[in-house]
TrEMBL record:
One MF annotation (Gene Ontology) recorded for this entry: isomerase activity
Keyword Repeat assigned: no
Annotated Xylose isomerase-like TIM barrel domain residues: 25-278
Protein name: Sugar phosphate isomerase/epimerase family protein
Xref: Pfam families: AP_endonuc_2
Domain of life of the native organism: Bacteria
Length: 288
């Protein structure tokens, strides 16, 4: 397993001038890679970050989310479905420019839209069709899409890994799989470990995110058991910390971040990787 750190702890609009040194700090904490929010990332900035990553010997992944007002794979409005395809193509281009092989995120639907019901059959079909188009473009670029089920407060299309696996099977592309997130699983799955085992054939990415979105290990959503499951199923891809604080204004109301979750903003990274490495090391020693 490779351990990464999501930049959303610090920014949703990374730029090389302001955040280049942050990559050095992330490496020095012991991370092997960085996850970049790529929506709105300029192609030139993605190229500059790629150079910096190479200098530091860091890998990377990318993350995207869709605003339902302009891009929604599940919408009945053709312009919003087309908007989703175009936005995802730009995100895929940035992912490739960064040198990443994985673009993840809650891409089943545009965020911020609720119908007051669960997904209708036509919405599901529209989403599958839209993600297949994006997935085919991603395959040509050598990029894997890791689709993330969210909890029912944030999304109504897909809330569990089982439903996500159903969706991925309908898309039916080898480079389209799932992201398992501990925060959302803690809310929606009856048995997180069982859900991850069942979803093993489709897992392409993992987010380690605490129940309160703070420091991994400070709550109850990231137990030792989940690392055991990853080792049991032979997962050898990215395990990325996704944590948040109140320093990114664009995320506060969207994620309902009304208070600080750590004494220092960097604690989620600095202490989180220590927590993860403890269990990864213990699992490796047991297998010897």
């Amino acid at each position: 397993m490779k351990i990464g750190m999501n930049l959303l702890l610090w920014t949703d609009r990374p730029n090389p001038g302001e955040h280049g040194q942050l990559l050095t700090q992330i490496r020095d904490w012991g991370f092997e890679g960085v996850e970049f929010p790529v929506d709105g990332l300029a192609a030139a900035d993605a190229a500059a970050f790629a150079v910096k990553l190479d200098e530091l010997g860091l890998g990377c992944t990318a993350i995207s989310a869709l605003d339902a007002q302009v891009a929604d794979p599940a919408s009945r409005e053709p312009r919003l479905r087309s908007g989703a395809v175009e936005m995802l193509k730009r995100a895929i281009d940035n992912t490739r420019t960064l040198g990443a092989e994985v673009l993840c995120g809650p891409l089943f639907q545009g965020l911020g839209r609720f119908s007051g019901r669960g997904p209708e059959a036509d919405e599901w079909a529209y989403a599958v069709e839209t993600l297949r188009k994006a997935g085919e473009y991603a395959r040509q670029a050598g990029v894997t899409l890791a689709l993330e089920p969210l909890n029912r407060i944030e999304m109504y299309m897909v809330n569990t890994l089982r439903d996500g696996a159903h969706f991925v099977r309908e898309v039916d592309l080898p480079n389209v799989g799932l992201l398992a997130d501990t925060h959302h699983g803690n809310i929606e799955e009856n048995d997180v470990a069982l859900a991850w085992r069942e979803a093993a054939p489709y897992l392409r990415h993992v987010h380690i995110s605490e129940n309160n979105r703070g420091v991994p290990g400070s709550g109850h959503a990231v137990p030792a058991e989940i690392f055991g499951v990853l080792q049991e199923i032979g997962y050898n891809k990215w395990v990325t910390i996704e944590a948040f604080n109140q320093s990114v204004p664009g995320l506060i109301s969207r994620l309902h971040l009304w208070r600080a979750y750590a004494e220092h903003p960097e604690d989620a990274a600095r202490l989180g990787i220590q927590y993860i490495r403890r269990f990864v090391k213990a699992g490796s020693e047991r297998r010897r």
